[in-house]
Amino acid sequence: MSKTPSFDKDRDYIGFATLPEQVHRKSVKRGFEFTLMVVGESGLGKSTLINSLFLGDLYKNRQMPNVEERIEKTTKVEKKTMDIEERGVRLRLTVVDTPGFGDAINCEDSWRVCTQYIDEQFRQYFTDESGLNRRNIQDNRVHCCLYFVPPWGHSLRQMDLDLIRRLHRKVNIVLVIGKADCLNKQEVRKLKERILQDLEDNHIQLYQFPECDSDEDDDFKQQDRELKASIPFAVVGSNTILEVAGKKVRGRQYPWGVVNVEDPEHSDFIKLRTFLISTHMQDLKDTTQDVHYENFRAQCISQISQHALRERGKLKRDSISSTNGFDAAITETDRLLLQKDEEIRRMQDMLTQMQEKLKQTHLMEMKKNDSVIDV
What we know:
InterPro entries: G_SEPTIN_dom, P-loop_NTPase, Septin. The chain is α/β, with parallel strands linked by helices. The chain has helices at about 20-30, 45-55, 65-70, 110-130, 160-165, 185-200, 220-230, 270-280, 280-320, 325-330, 330-375; strands spanning about 30-40, 80-85, 90-95, 145-150, 175, 235, 240-245, 245-255, 255-260. About 20% of the residues are buried. The model has no long low-confidence stretch (mean pLDDT about 80).
């Protein structure tokens, strides 16, 4: 007796259900890239927070400038890249830091370096995408901008509003209140409310969380609601491991106690890490591609088209002027023909309008006859 082939057992099985597995294997093999811009004045714990988020040390040899150097200090851009691997998944993380932002006496143009860098990365990607070799395009576009707000202010400063207003249509902005352990719970809540009110008054739109699908489980929906309610995130960072009640925690030691960075009652650190890494990293990249980059690309194409039209018009004018007496060469017969064409066009328009009126009149009469018959 012949043995039945294995594929005869599942005649209704086609096989495309394995597509997600194929995409997963290919993506894991290729690895992932993520670019994070960090903006804020010195002393707000930006470096400590980044090291706490990704469990690394990106700023080993960094030197802090003294007061004299900060007086004339200008904003610059520093890129640091690290490769992270977790459970076989590789992530190439690029952190774009902006040392000098807000440190000088005159901070009017501090935003300029940030906007120029974001536009340069968009422009480079657009150039690579328009080239012949598009197989190995390196994506250096900024996918998220963490903007640090000082905890000792009453709300957003004019310098903060100037930068956010210029960036909110170019990059996904996430506001972070640095060194939130300077405030109690009530002060944190009031500061968040004032910041959100300032954003609304100035028509500034931060990164918008996508809506949960109806088929998501209740735990995920609850987590999503908590993340949305936590904006802006009030965080505390620490690279120190302390032992509290027999447990090792990442925190900060004070004379009156320990601030546990990973305790939701003390800080929004866990919520920020969950949002930035676990749940919304891919959506940040998709929003950068589908919204911010597409806006930049549309502007570039529009500028190229306008430039081409201007060049074409210039060439046409040059060719007309190069002909000897082109206008004089137009004979009286040509002018009469042009006039006749214009009259014919006007008559055709009038005829079309008359036909439309007759058609409407005919429809009205038919409706009137129908009403008489109904009576």
